[in-house]
Amino acid sequence: MTERYKNFDAAWQEHKGKPLIATVLGADYELPPKLPASVVLRVIRLKNKGRNYSDLTREEIIEFAVDMIPKAVLDEWLGKGMDTDQIADIILWAFHQYQGGGGDQGEVPAPTTGADQTSEHSTLS
Fold this sequence. Notes:
Strand order of the largest sheet: 1-2-3
Shape: globular
Number of helices: 5
Mean pLDDT: 81
Distance between the termini: 32 Å
């Protein structure tokens, strides 16, 4: 290839990163390794207005959930009775992880891998 060519697909695949994994209503789900650009832009706009994650309204949290979680998965969770506080827990945990916060924020440790691990991961991307 020439100097004026760049395969972005290959470059992005190399730097994809590891997904976030969360157990929700008895099943493990994968969130994308990085936030969608649309979500990042909305976060920047909120911060430019002097707001933080703790200032988010329930409506804003649901809007972020719609942007971050596929409709089929969100519909499944809602069909199982998930409430807005639970959705907020997931979204705020994900934001913390995406910012490099790491840790479990006081949650139960993730299950260890091993022969007794039976849950499948569903991709949230």
